[in-house]
Amino acid sequence: MPTIADTAPADTTFRAASLELSGIELAFGTNKVLRGVDLVVPAGRTACVIGPSGSGKSTLLRATNRLLEPDAGDIRLGGESVLRSNPDELRRRIGMVFQHFNLFPHKTVLENITLPLRKIKKLTPEGAVEAARIQLELVGLREKESARPGNLSGGQQQRVAIARALAMKPEVMLFDEATSALDPELVKGVLGLMADLASAGMTMIVVTHEMGFARQVADQVAFMDRGVVVEAGVPEKLFTAAESPRLQQFLSQVL
Ligand code: ADP
Ligand code: MG
């Protein structure tokens, strides 16, 4: 299968931007879930976020593309604050892939990708189909364009979700445990696709339990616990010379 990196003519290119989160705070009622998160991802780099369940990882990703509004802090995309911009515009620039795919079950694979292209990007029907097919080709699912999501494997559904996000030409991609719902034999293919995207130069934040992926693909790994980034650094350092006791304990449980 061609990789994203070696099939990158005009239509499959993207313009990746830097992403800086600073002092992000967010509470649900009295539950302060994010308590001042800082994370800087230079353009074209991949940050993996690891940490225990309930530490605020999903909330952080949702706050980053403003599916949830932060109470405090700043989000800078390509150096510019986007907290006061139009949230729909922001979600065009920051693509997101969820654990449970979030595809429309009654639409075909092709329609799942063309719908947002037409509604949000205002492409013509023909333009949307053309753009969608290019992305489907890239994720190896061109022959599945007429299938419904329910007739695909979890791995194929997640590839469609990734293709749908990429078709919007985002400058940053967020992945929230994109392989956690997949059968073990399907995990590798989706991780491989994500690794290809990282080496093709996309800016990515990847929340994952896949420590092997974090080790091999991440430029930076951030460990979150109780609403803050407790420790961050290059994978080699984080996995072999963790400083904080909380990270040491976490790693002893997952490695
Ligand atoms: P993680 O992804 O690291 O497991 P989450 O960001 O999903 O953590 O959750 C962090 C905390 O925020 C948890 O205590 C969770 O119960 C709470 N939380 C998450 N989403 C909501 C919500 N929509 N309403 C209320 N509380 C929420
Ligand atoms: Mg989560």
TrEMBL record:
It comes from Kribbella orskensis. It is found in: Cell membrane. SMART domains: AAA. Gene3D superfamilies: P-loop containing nucleotide triphosphate hydrolases. SUPFAM superfamilies: P-loop containing nucleoside triphosphate hydrolases (SSF52540). Residues 19-251 form the ABC transporter domain. It holds the Pfam family ABC_tran. The keyword Transport applies. It is a peripheral membrane protein. Its main location: membrane. Transmembrane segments: none annotated. It comes from the Bacteria. One of its GO terms (molecular function) is ATP binding. This is Polar amino acid transport system ATP-binding protein. InterPro entries: AAA+_ATPase, ABC_ATPase_HisP-typ, ABC_transporter-like_ATP-bd, ABC_transporter-like_CS, MetN_ABC_transporter-like, P-loop_NTPase. Belongs to the ABC transporter superfamily. Keywords: Amino-acid transport, ATP-binding, Cell membrane, Membrane, Nucleotide-binding, Transport.
